Amino acid sequence: MQTRITEMLGIEIPIIQAPMGWIARSSLASAVSNAGGLGIIETSSGDMDAIKIEILAMRELTGKPWGVNIAQHFVRDPQALVDFVAENEVGFVTTSAGDPAVLVPRLKELGVTVFHVVPTMRGAQKAIDAGVDGLVVEGIEGGGFKNADGASSLVLVPEIASRFDVPVVAAGGFVDGRSMAAAFAMGAEAVQMGTRMVASIESPVHANWKQALIDAKESDTVVVNRHHRPAMRTLRTELTGRLEADDEPAILNIDDMMKLYFGGDMEVGVAMAGQVAGRVRSIEPVESILRDAWDDCRAVLRELGSRAE
Ligand SMILES: Cc1cc2nc3c(=O)[nH]c(=O)nc-3n(C[C@H](O)[C@H](O)[C@H](O)COP(=O)(O)O)c2cc1C
Fold first, then answer.
1. C-beta separation of 185 from 166 below 8 A
2. pTM surpassing 0.85?
3. Number of folded domains that form the chain
4. H/E run at residue 5
């Protein structure tokens, strides 16, 4: 089964691994690409020296297609990064956290396929006006940075997919074959998985974070910074529960984040996660996550198709 996105990106399985600060590095991204999906290197950590090394490492670790996310707000010199990406023959970029009109025209000139990440209908229109090749549509149930007033994937994806001609990647709530099949029914042509990828063998985060995802119920995430910026969906801990209840700003301090991400201290910062944490039950190698989701997705679609006859 092909979609416009598998054809455009030259991938076998329409699953894209989400860009995630410090997590979406070459060990995870190359595993996703080698398994037939599309791995993405993050830039939202803002750690440009390390990111350049990761981009160069990808060229060694996989011969399959992969991409880079340019999180405009977090990158000091996005234009220089565009040049670096093009020099290193990166064929696919997602832009996010900024005005699509700033980078999309130059990326297109350089022959790069560009999708912009959008949380609203208005954002989608701006990205279309900037000339994107496709959209990553992010529902509020997903992990990470969020538009606090955003709508769920169930509302956003069909609305945007039916309004615009470009292909849509559905992000937020997609974790397995059944949810992928739902994304296709809503008009998406690929899904992006964040939370599911954090709980993979190849994800570099501390085992405590992975275990917290396994233990979480679907109601165990909170949106912090609802009235401050940036709003983020994170796992519920003592700290994040208190920040949410008191409407206090969650401050992203790099030292604390490193203690959480790689030291496993879950109470010193925010561990971003989507509501699908409640559906993640095991830590698996990326290859089986992709293969099982894709096989199950096609089985669900076949079954529904035969029932609709
Ligand atoms: C741990 C984590 C970190 C994330 N970090 C970023 C980020 O740095 N930049 C970004 O644009 N999105 C980030 N996201 C959002 C993802 O790119 C993706 O859209 C989202 O995870 C999809 O929803 P899901 O969690 O239900 O799969 C993050 C998500 C998670 C779970």
1. no
2. yes
3. 2
4. helix 4-9
Task: Determine the structural domain holding residue 62 and report its residue range.
Answer: 4-203+282-307
Q: Bridge-partner residues for 309, per DSSP?
A: none
**256 burial type by CB count under 10 A (0-12 exposed, 13-18 middle, 19+ buried):** middle
66 and 125 share a domain? yes
Looking from the CA of residue 42, the nearest atom of ligand 1 is 8
Blockwise average pLDDT, block size 10, the chain, 309 residues:
97 98 98 98 94 96 97 92 93 96 95 97 97 98 93 98 98 98 98 98 98 98 92 96 92 92 96 98 98 98 95
> To test the ligand 1 pocket, which listed residue (20, 232, 234) has its Cβ within 8 A of the most ligand atoms?
20
**Ligand 1 site, CB within 6 A:** 18-21, 23, 42, 44, 71, 96, 117, 138, 142-145, 171-174, 192-196, 198, 272-274, 276
